[in-house]
Design brief:
The protein has two domains: 114 residues, Neuraminidase; 105 residues, no CATH class. The chain is 15% helix and 36% strand. The protein is built from five helices and 20 strands. Strands 1, 2, 3, 4 and 5 form a five-stranded mixed β-sheet that branches. It is globular and about 75 Å long. The relative contact order is 0.08.
């Protein structure tokens, strides 16, 4: 009897091996696949964050039908259950991004990304700030969204929720705006932005060479904001060609080439409503870089 069972086991093994060893049909590697987007490694989830209470792991995940469009997903850390929180196609307006946001995405190497490219948890863990197509939305954990801004063609840059959750802030039209998160209109806390003057943004060199994407920083208590102001008038203008799928666009851009003047940078501290503005002493040399800014824990 033992010999019979042993023989049967050998026969089953012989039958199973060919099926296990079968190789999948080879896929032809094309030049389009090698040099196209996404690359051969595929598009990976990005922006992975834990909710403030640690119960949800959120990330931006590419769509199966449009690999460069990202939606916001959440995974329950206790059960492993996953669900889409914000569908960028359903919520977004489809409006074209402002030139400022296009340039910012290019410097962050995400120029081809669509949908949701960043988001910010509220400190109470109940809502998430989600920028889509230049406007801001507040999403709750049940997937409902509330639109906070509406300014087609003049998108909201660098949006964040303040550390205590009292405000949402963003840059629009080269000025910094602050809006109560609980409701109310956005209010500009700077006024002379425009032309060559920018508030709350990171200049070209800071974005490209220092990996700094923002130009303002909230105090831990929500009471004050440190804000960068820069004037790019000293920077020379170059002609640049942007090559795209629909043709080539030529335009002028201020570009700080090596050995040429940089932007004139300054740092201010103000209250959340824009009052009490104080200029920070950065030294007597005007030709400087503002690499990093941070608050002490006590504000």
């Amino acid at each position: 009897m033992r010999a019979t069972w042993a023989f049967a086991g050998v026969m089953l093994a012989c039958v199973a091996v060919p099926a296990m060893a079968a190789d999948p049909a080879p896929t032809q590697l094309t030049l389009k696949a090698v040099f196209g987007s996404p690359d051969l490694s595929g598009v990976q989830p990005r922006g992975v964050k834990l909710s403030p209470d640690g119960t949800l792991l959120t990330s931006l995940r590419p769509r199966a039908d449009e690999k460069e469009r990202f939606d916001l997903w959440a995974r329950d850390t206790r059960t492993g259950q996953e669900r889409m929180l914000v569908d960028s196609k359903k919520v977004g307006s489809g409006a074209e991004l402002s030139e400022a946001e296009k340039m910012q995405r290019e410097r962050a190497r995400i120029a081809g990304s669509k949908g949701i490219v960043t988001y910010d948890w509220a400190p109470d863990g109940k809502t998430i700030l989600v920028p889509i197509d230049g406007d801001l939305y507040l999403a709750t954990l049940d997937g409902a969204t509330r639109r906070l801004t509406s300014a087609p063609g003049d998108g909201a840059l660098n949006p964040v929720i303040s550390p205590k959750g009292g405000f949402v802030s963003f840059v629009r039209g080269q000025n910094l705006f602050v809006q109560p998160l609980g409701g109310g209109d956005a209010r500009a806390v700077s006024s002379d932005g425009g032309g060559t003057v920018h508030w709350g943004e990171a200049e070209f060199v800071a974005q490209e060479e220092m990996d700094r994407r923002t130009g303002y920083w909230w105090s831990p208590q929500d009471s004050h904001i440190a804000v960068e102001r820069f004037d790019e008038a000293p920077v020379g203008i170059v002609t640049r060609a942007a090559i795209g799928a629909n043709g080539t666009k030529v335009y002028d851009q201020r570009y700080p080439a090596a050995g040429t003047p940089n932007v004139a940078v300054a740092l201010y501290v103000m209250k959340a409503d824009g009052s009490g503005k104080v200029k920070v002493d950065l030294g007597s040399n005007p030709d400087i870089y503002l690499a990093r800014v941070d608050w002490t824990p006590d504000g």
